[in-house]
């Protein structure tokens, strides 16, 4: 269960920022803060979703990239030398004399009923610091703290950690290296808690790019071939619900040279060995009578929006089934506003989200800024100043925002910032079209 994520000195985020899913306190005069979008975990009130808004190039996607790099480091830092250097190459670079400042990431999350706080700092391609704290009871306790190759591990809470500390100190071990994480190394050495927490980070957070759906569609195709009946039925039904002219989906041998499904004596489709996704549609005669069903190439016939929906469906289903976090960059790209609203509503509705899955998404869809759909603490606004430094804060932290305000209208008017300043466009274009061509 995701609680909050801290990023510092990464890309445009020079200063420390905490992206939190903790819900704001409900005040007596704030009836507009609907409680249906909140759930409780061990006395923590957490949001089911959060939207990230901001102008182009404000740094919205950098929040998602930071979380993605955090996951990659936890996953790959041992087997991929240079992972820490790859992250270090993404430090904030627009301030002189800043290269001695480390990149810092920290994730606060629940695993079972224990609240953990795990993070690390990278400096010059090496792990400068790493820490794991937890709250198995009322008080937070130390599991381990690392400073370069010195690791102080608690034998009570991180059982057996001392022996790994020794390997880190030796410096000749291929697993415990200056550029790899102690937690990842312990996990790969079969440390029970280390393995458990590493898997929790990797399996409970799924990050996808809404513009890279062509690659993700392979997951859905795989589910149609080898998935459970439950998964297959859900994917087919959701696509049919979004486009009523699609009657079914099938992975079939390539039928590119044929408009009908030719079948052999056993009723199996004939064709090439290459499997292709087809949408099955009804064909009618001129009198309107159904004559047969025909396969149509999904990649050629279906809209970009339908193809994107097909690609992300398995990720939405798995998040709702497992109660995990789904993070989507460019969420609304190629989607009708009604579809983005419906997907968000799936995470807010108890019947479709019984396990309290969470959704974080980057969007420009201002129609979601409705008091009936998003609370003020569910809206994160990202801005960037003239020095290239990004910052963000929740809408509820803006002073003077009335509980009955029209968030959509005021956001588009620039009341909260985080919108593009476009006044110079007219002058630039007018100058371009009305002046002569000067070669230079």
Q: Please tell me what the overall shape is.
A: globular
Mean pLDDT: 86
What percentage of the residues does DSSP assign to strands (E)? Answer: 25-35%
Output the number of helix runs: 12
Provide the descriptors you would attach to this structure in a database record.
12 helices, globular, seven-stranded antiparallel β-sheet, 440 residues, alpha+beta
Explained architecture:
This protein is α+β, with helices and mostly antiparallel strands and 440 residues long. The protein is built from 12 helices and 18 strands. It has a 7-stranded antiparallel sheet. The protein has a 6-stranded mixed sheet with strand order 11-15-16-5-17-18, with helices on both faces. A hairpin with a 2-residue loop joins β3 and β4. α6 packs across α9 and α7 crosses α9. The radius of gyration is 25 Å and the shape is globular.
Helix and strand topology:
Elements: E1 2-8, E2 17-20, E3 38-41, E4 44-47, E5 49-54, H1 60-76, H2 83-88, E6 103-111, E7 114-123, E8 126-135, E9 141-147, E10 150-153, H3 161-170, H4 182-188, H5 192-204, E11 205-209, H6 213-226, H7 229-242, E12 248-253, E13 275-284, E14 290-297, H8 298-301, H9 304-322, E15 325-329, H10 337-348, E16 358-362, E17 379-384, E18 390-394, H11 407-412, H12 424-433
Parallel strand pairs: 5-16, 5-17, 11-15, 15-16
Antiparallel strand pairs: 1-2, 1-6, 3-4, 6-7, 7-8, 8-9, 9-10, 12-13, 13-14, 17-18
Helix pairs in contact: 4-5, 6-9, 7-9
């Amino acid at each position: 269960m995701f609680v909050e994520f801290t990023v510092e000195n990464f890309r445009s985020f020079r200063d420390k920022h905490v992206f939190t899913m903790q819900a704001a306190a409900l005040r007596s005069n704030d009836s507009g803060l609907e409680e249906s979008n909140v759930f409780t975990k061990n006395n923590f009130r957490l949001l089911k979703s959060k939207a990230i808004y901001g102008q182009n190039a404000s740094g919205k996607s950098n929040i998602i990239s930071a979380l993605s790099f955090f996951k990659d480091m936890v996953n790959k830092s041992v087997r991929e030398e240079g992972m820490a250097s790859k992250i270090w190459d993404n430090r904030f670079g627009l301030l002189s004399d800043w290269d001695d400042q480390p990149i810092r990431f920290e994730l606060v999350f629940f695993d079972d009923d224990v609240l953990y706080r795990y993070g690390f700092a990278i400096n010059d391609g090496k792990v400068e610091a790493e820490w794991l704290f937890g709250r198995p009871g009322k008080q937070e306790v130390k599991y381990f703290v690392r400073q370069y190759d010195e690791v102080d591990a608690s034998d009570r809470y991180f059982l057996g950690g001392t022996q790994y500390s020794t390997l880190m100190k030796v410096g000749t071990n291929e697993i415990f290296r200056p550029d790899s994480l102690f937690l990842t190394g312990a996990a790969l050495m079969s440390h029970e808690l280390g393995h458990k927490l590493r898997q929790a980070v990797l399996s409970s957070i799924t990050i996808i790019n809404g513009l890279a759906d062509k690659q993700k569609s392979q997951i859905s195709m795989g589910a149609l071939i080898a998935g459970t009946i439950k998964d297959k039925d859900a994917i087919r039904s959701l696509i049919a619900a979004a486009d009523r002219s699609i009657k079914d989906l099938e992975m079939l041998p390539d039928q590119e040279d044929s408009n009908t499904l030719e079948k052999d004596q056993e009723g199996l489709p004939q064709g090439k060995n290459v499997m292709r996704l087809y949408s099955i549609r009804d064909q009618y005669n001129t009198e309107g009578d159904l004559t047969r069903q025909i396969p149509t190439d999904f990649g050629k016939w279906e809209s970009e929006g339908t193809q994107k929906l097909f690609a992300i469906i398995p990720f939405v289903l798995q998040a709702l089934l497992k109660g995990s976090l789904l993070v989507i960059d460019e969420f609304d790209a190629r989607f009708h506003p009604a579809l983005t609203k419906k997907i968000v509503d799936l995470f807010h509705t108890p019947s479709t989200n019984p396990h309290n899955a969470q959704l974080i998404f980057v969007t420009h869809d201002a129609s979601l800024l409705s008091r009936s759909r998003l609370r003020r603490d569910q809206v994160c606004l990202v801005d960037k100043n003239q020095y290239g430094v990004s910052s963000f804060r929740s809408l509820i932290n803006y002073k003077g925002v009335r509980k009955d305000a029209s968030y959509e209208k005021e956001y588009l008017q620039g009341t909260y910032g985080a919108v593009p300043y476009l006044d110079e466009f007219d002058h630039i274009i007018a100058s371009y079209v009305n002046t002569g061509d000067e070669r230079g």
